[in-house]
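Supplementary notes for students who missed Thursday's class. We covered one full example, reproduced here. Read the sequence, then the structure, then the short commentary at the end.
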Amino acid sequence: MSEYIIEMRNITKVFPGIKANDNITLQLKKGEIHALLGENGAGKSTLMSVLFGLYQPDEGKIFKDGKEVKINNPNDANALKIGMVHQHFKLVEVFTVLENIILGAEDTNMGLLEKNRARKKVLMLSQKYGLNVNPNALVEDISVGMQQRVEILKMLYRNNDILIFDEPTAVLTPQEIDDLMEIMRGFAREGKSILFITHKLNEIMAVADRCTVLRKGKYMGTVDIKDVTKEDLSQMMVGRQVSFTVDKMDIQTGKTVLEVKNLTVPSKLHKNNAVKNVSFTVREGEIVCIAGIEGNGQTEFVQALTGLEKIKSGSIKLYGKELTKLSIRQRAKSGMAHIPEDRHKHGLVLDYTLEQNLVLQRYWTNEFKKAGFIRSKAIRKHAVRLIEQFDIRSGQGPITISRSMSGGNQQKAIVGREIDRSEPLVVAVQPTRGLDVGAIEFIHQELVKTRDSGKAVLLVSLELDEVMNLSDRILVMYEGKIVGEFDPKKTTVQELGLYMAGGKRTNEQTNEQTKASLAK
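Structure (token representation):
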């Protein structure tokens, strides 16, 4: 019997213009949690897609329990008890949660679908692992975080023994991440083997037994976690030392840029309002963060703010100009840049080229059109500049189809496009989701530069380290309300966690602070 339950030997995978995997060997032991670490575009997801049968390797072999296997498609992978939680969800939006989980593994009796039996199993798994999904909800109506849980349940439903997690915590809150880490430890104790792709070094140090590092498609080595530090791993990953803290000057605020007053937004999922009478301001030269656990109204708030959803009541003003009834384009023209939560649904046109996506908010300006015609050379020059400035890695440069890029590089494209517009207000929702430590360091620096140039930044983040490092003020949202306002220099992660979970609230205090700031 082989020491390794899975071996990928000398795997090479080439796409047009890029060698995604270059002679990589990966060995997974039975019952271990094995992390796969690398920069955006390092080839991690490609390697796991080869193991799951989504891609075929150009060179190399795969072995299970010492025997060579051919994995032509995900059905072959499932037959070998290999399951995968994808970074970009493989869900049918018009289907329910239950229908998505059982799709391809349907239980039938006399040709009829046994939905009740499947529902019981899904509810049992959901309760056992604390995933708390509603089997009857349509996927198009649930949050990104909830969709992530559906992906995890799809794998659990199929009783897989080899579990691939591709950036599973990118959309989870700190509490949910802790829960998932414990679930993964439980899987390992049960004898399941886990391959865990992540950019988050803290998670690797907390849960992994060993770690394999890739850089630009090449194998950099495999280490025992007990023998290395975070700094060692970041050095292996990006080839240089990375700062884990954000350097910024003391706050110098100016005029009020954004004023939100008594904003109420209806919910798509239930009769209650998703956002309830929210008021606050963001001034020039500050980063204000809305922190909260997924599903407490942040998504609906941002969609109302940016014009993606209609509001029920209240007002939104930018430098005193009422935006409430303006279209998305009119809001963009009025001075609002938006880094959206869902990069695929609201951030990119995936079948457009990278250069086309980089001018989505500006192609109608004189810089990029003349006499009604698009200025292709100007767009190409603009794209080349942003690709270099934001280190957007793509196989064919500006003409790369955006769908083919790694998730982290898609995110960098959106961040680069929105920050480069140099608008007075930047609404940044999970701006570093799915990014490696080097890219996170760079994006944080860019947001601080935006703030220091006298612009206003409204940050919405689930990452408490990011919240504490970047923010000048923190607003905690719970059940659609602002329940606390904090100075990051005077609060702790533990205190924020209590407010985020609804354990404490300072409604009266916050209302008085808000009234005072609105009266200024």
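Commentary. Residues 4-238 form a domain with the Rossmann fold fold (CATH 3.40.50.300). DSSP finds 18 helices and 24 strands in the chain. If anything here is unclear, bring it to office hours.
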